[in-house]
Write a structure and sequence with these properties.
The complex is a heterodimer of chains A (290) and B (248).
Chain A: H1 5-12, H2 26-52, H3 57-64, H4 67-107, H5 114-128, H6 132-146, H7 155-181, H8 184-192, H9 197-227, H10 239-250, H11 254-289
Chain B: E1 5-14, E2 17-27, E3 32-36, H1 43-50, E4 58-63, E5 66-67, H2 75-79, E6 82-85, H3 97-108, H4 113-126, H5 142-154, E7 160-164, H6 172-187, E8 191-195, H7 199-205, E9 208-213, E10 216-221, H8 223-228, H9 233-244
Parallel strand pairs in B: 3-8, 3-9, 6-7, 7-8
Antiparallel strand pairs in B: 1-2, 1-4, 4-5, 9-10
Classes of the chains: A mainly alpha (290), B alpha/beta (248).
């Protein structure tokens, strides 16, 4: 009698069913590397071949990938990009702090805290419902035009403020997921030794919660690092604005590529770091539970 | 003389499920009361009600003659006078053992760190855990974690200890070390209410054993009477099942 496919599979053992993730022997590792390298070269080569041989490529190259314009625009774009970095750093610090406070307020229990919770939930719902660009335009043009005494009129200030307000709402939800991921028994046992709600949150729940959501927070970093460029709509001379100005002057788009390269130089390492950290965290948890 | 702890007609429901219906219990100072009964009989809920972790629906709980369930009582202050230890240890995994123990005294009683640590080390050495002071809970065995949890509860100098099935999550060979700690506490005169499935232990350590069934204390007696001569048919059934399972 012929064995059914299932039996065949079982006899081969589970290892033969799928490629193992990490190679068991050196030869296997070398073979894997060779396959990976060959397939990468072939795929990328094909894509390049198609693009570079398209009829419009020479024109596109002049418009978008001109080495001359790259060199010409780069210093201005880079100095504008430095402002992007500064905005990012200032905004991120504020966001991490404000969002944590918002999330902690949302996590408070008991009827006494209801008004606070309502305020916080309203804030999160409203802000998450408004496109970030719209918020930047509203605040960046709207608030300075009110000409309130003692209130800053700089579009840069209000642009960053809009980013902080918007991102804090999202980041608060990230923290909240973390707070909810900490088991109820931790809260109970913190309360049982006499800690107040606030103390239990601060010393027991939040430290564990933050650890659980670090990868998600890092993702927020990557996202914010690009979104700071949105304040260019207010005329703030950051990287993208400088690229835009160069383009308006020369009708060449390479300055945008220069800006893109700069953004990538920062965001790709952060993205790689996030992956590395998440993977390390996963392994550590696995080791702990075994 | 007023009882250390007096539970009077306490009722508790979760949604439409009644967990405690009219529980009455008096615990004298230095008395050890064991609560036995099948899972879901209300043992754990009763302990959490005493610790005010679960609000009661009706009745009253008196500690030294004062109603701790009254609306004007600050539950945080009440909790400082009693320690509770849970089945699942519930140590704080992100803190070293010593910080787990000193957190309560430092934050609640405002004890300075070095003083709190000194006391914590005294307690740890008393329970043979001094070498684990700097370790994180995840690296300890279940028995060690549960002993640390007991030390943590003791660190706020409670007058009453509530133990909620503290050996149920342990490997059999680790049960004894935890039970010995509880016997030591009894030797030191600690008032305790213990929910347990360890009948042999209850018989040894308890002054009084209460059999809970479906949210009421069905039978309450000295251990030798309750285990030797149970009066209620439900108690007899329960004990017979335990004996059949070879656990008494």
């Amino acid at each position: 009698m012929n064995p059914t496919p299932i039996e065949k599979v079982e006899r081969r053992g589970p290892q033969a069913l799928w490629p193992r993730r990490s190679p068991h022997t050196r030869e296997e590792g070398a073979r894997g590397a060779l396959i990976a390298a060959t397939s990468t070269v072939i795929v990328l080569g094909l894509i390049l071949f198609v693009v570079l041989n398209s009829a419009a490529w020479p024109k596109v190259q002049r418009q978008f990938f001109s080495w001359f314009h790259f060199k010409e625009s780069f210093p201005k774009v880079a100095s504008g990009f430095w402002l992007d970095i500064q905005m990012f750093l200032v905004a991120e610090v504020l966001i991490l702090a404000i969002a944590l406070v918002v999330a902690m307020i949302r996590a408070l229990r008991g009827p006494a805290f209801l008004p606070l919770r309502i305020i916080v939930v309203t804030y999160i719902d409203l802000i998450r419902g408004i496109p970030i660009l719209l918020l930047i335009l509203l605040m960046g043009f709207g608030i300075p035009s009110l000409q309130l005494p003692g209130v800053p009129r700089s579009p840069l200030f209000w642009g960053v403020a809009a980013l902080v307000i918007s991102y804090s709402a999202y980041t608060a939800e990230v923290y909240r997921a973390g707070i909810e991921s900490v088991h109820e028994s931790q809260r109970m046992s913190a309360r049982s030794i006499g800690l107040t709600q606030g103390q239990a949150l601060r010393h027991v729940i939040v430290p564990q919660a933050v650890r659980n959501v670090i990868p998600a927070l890092l993702n927020g970093f990557v996202s914010l690092q690009k979104d700071v460029a949105l304040v260019f709509v207010l005329g703030v001379r950051e990287g993208l604005r400088e690229a835009d100005i160069y383009n308006a002057r020369t009708f060449n788009y390479t300055s945008y590529i220069a800006a893109a390269v700069l953004f990538l130089l920062v965001s790709v390492p952060v993205a790689r770091f996030t992956d590395w950290y998440t993977e390390r965290d996963r392994r550590r948890k696995q080791a702990m539970s075994s | 003389m007023t009882a250390k702890l007096s539970i009077q007609s306490v009722r508790k429901s979760f949604d439409d499920k009644t967990v405690l219906r009219d529980v009455d219990l008096e615990v004298a100072a230095h008395e050890v009361v064991c609560l036995i009964g099948s899972s879901g009989s209300g043992k754990s809920t009763l302990l959490k009600c005493i610790n005010l972790l679960v609000p009661i629906d009706a009745g009253g709980i008196l500690l030294d003659g004062e109603d701790i369930t009254a609306a004007d009582v600050n539950p945080n202050l009440v909790r400082q006078t009693m320690g509770i230890v849970f089945q699942a240890f519930n140590l704080f995994p992100h803190m070293r053992v010593i910080d787990n123990i000193t957190l309560g005294p430092r934050k609640v009683h405002g004890v300075p760190r070095d003083e709190a640590e000194e006391r914590a080390r005294d307690l740890l050495s008393q329970f043979d855990l001094l070498d684990k002071a700097e370790a994180y809970p995840g690296l300890l065995s279940g028995g060690q974690q549960q002993r640390v949890a007991i030390v943590r509860a003791l660190a706020v100098e409670p007058e009453l200890m509530l133990l909620d099935e503290v050996t149920s999550a342990l490997d059999p060979e680790l049960v004894a070390e935890v039970l010995n700690v509880i016997k030591d506490l009894k030797g030191g005169g600690m008032t305790m209410v213990i929910a347990t499935h360890e009948m042999g232990f209850a018989r040894d350590v308890a002054d009084t054993v209460c059999f809970l069934d479906d949210g009421v204390i069905l039978e309450r007696a000295a251990p030798k009477d309750l285990f030797g001569n149970p009066r209620q048919p439900r108690t007899q059934q329960f004990l017979q099942r335990i004996i059949d399972a070879g656990r008494l």
